[in-house]
Structures are given as structure tokens and as C-alpha cells.
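Researcher: I'd like a candidate sequence for this fold, 116 residues long. If you have to choose between options at a position, lean toward the conservative one.
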């Protein structure tokens, strides 16, 4: 398969002139490094991550505490004792992307649907 003239491999994930997707494998340190490099490679207006907005404040606080590995936990259903959690581990690509965006002062948007 050949690339079109002037295009690069990263153009595959360009959804528009201003939006780029970056697929990851959760728990992969290699992808965490690739995400960091991608965020640092050019100027971005915002980093959108597939986490609910209700997690933003607690996730970002926990990320600022790295290298301490932790988890952010929220109740989904108090009656059923159901919870959802996000591991705050720098080997998680999404966590690494958020950490890099915080360090580079790039605005972040948590865009996934709420579980409650």
C-alpha cells in the first residue's frame, strides 16, 4: 500500500483539518510513550479523552500525584453496590496523554457518556 503524495502515516487518523484520532491499546507502555510523543509533536488546541466529565477533577488531581499509582472510583449504582474505576498509571496511554497535556497547558475535554 502506498501513501498519497504529501501524506504521512499520521494523516490516516486525521478526521478533519482540526481533529485527529489516536487509537491506543490500554495498559501498553509503548502506546503511552507514542501518545506522549504525538501530543508533543505539534500544537493542539485541546485533548479530548474517552472518559466522562465527572471524572475530570479527580483524575487530574490523581495524575498530578504521579508517580504514585492510584485509582479514581465512582459509584454507578448505590443500591446495587456497583462502581467504575480508572487506574491512574502512567503506563496507561490515556493517563499519559492527560499528564502530558497538563504539563504542556493544553486544555482537556472529558467527552465520554456518564455512567450514572
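Model: Candidate sequence:
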Amino acid at each position: 500500500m502506498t501513501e498519497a503524495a504529501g501524506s504521512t502515516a499520521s494523516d490516516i487518523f486525521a478526521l478533519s483539518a482540526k481533529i485527529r484520532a489516536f487509537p491506543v491499546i490500554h495498559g501498553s507502555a509503548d502506546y503511552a510513550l507514542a501518545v506522549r510523543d504525538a501530543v508533543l509533536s505539534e500544537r493542539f488546541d485541546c485533548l479530548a479523552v474517552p472518559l466522562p466529565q465527572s471524572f475530570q477533577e479527580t483524575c487530574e488531581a490523581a495524575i498530578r500525584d504521579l508517580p504514585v499509582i492510584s485509582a479514581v472510583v465512582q459509584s454507578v449504582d448505590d443500591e446495587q453496590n456497583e462502581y467504575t474505576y480508572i487506574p491512574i498509571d502512567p503506563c496507561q496511554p490515556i493517563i499519559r496523554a492527560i499528564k502530558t497535556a497538563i504539563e504542556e497547558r493544553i486544555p482537556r475535554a472529558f467527552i465520554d457518556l456518564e455512567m450514572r
